[in-house]
Protein: SGF29 C-terminal domain-containing protein
Organism: Tripterygium wilfordii
Amino acid sequence: MSSPDITAILENSRVLDRIRKDQEEVLVEINKMHRKLQATPEVVEKPGDTSLAKLTHLYTRAKDLSESEVTFSSALLSQLDALLPSGPPGQQRKRIDGNEQKRKRMKTDSDISRLSPSMRSQLEPCANLKGEQVAARVTGDNSEKDEWFVVKVIHFHKDTKEFEVLDEEPGDEEEGSGQRKYHLPMSRIIPFPKRNEPSSVPDFPPGRQVLAVYPRTTALYKATVVSPQRKRKTDDYLLEFDDDEEDGKMPQRIVPFDRVVALPEGHRQ
């Protein structure tokens, strides 16, 4: 195991530990609010009371932390799986014919039903993303900055826990023309909110930093929510993108709700 591998695993472990501590703090605050509302339910009817708004914010925070926990747990799982030896040293690999390969693939696909409930709950949604557009970080862990693009999921490999995705936007002259394919771990994929499932759409309040698709592009950048007038989860966001200054001012851009996702922990831009 190389030093960079150990460093990456330890760093993700530390982040996961911080996330779980934050979850415990949020849970304590939620329980406090529950006790308060149970003792004095009439308080919510008083003018200016913000109890329900605070509770909503706490549950939103708890949901964001839960999603981050899944992201970093998946990253750790992928890192550890990649470091596991494929067999005893010096062991020769048996040649597998076409029928054996087919049986092996069928066995791998069926293995998901025998996984633990927590692992199954992570892999099943990934398998259902085939054909969907998602946000993907195409740069490696050692890159100077993170680059996120809108890509299409071609396949999810349950055995390697990797996505095969297609960047449908042709590259420029420097990068080479044509569409590009990537094989990416679960930790580098973020599904977009679904338009036909508004109840599952996250609601980012004003001031929250997010990752969003810049208008008329397929690239995602860090932005801040500035629109206080959103009435529904399916309303567009008004955002200010980092480093988007024009004539000394920060323009406010309208971005559809299904092109805005939570800002990944440790995002580099």
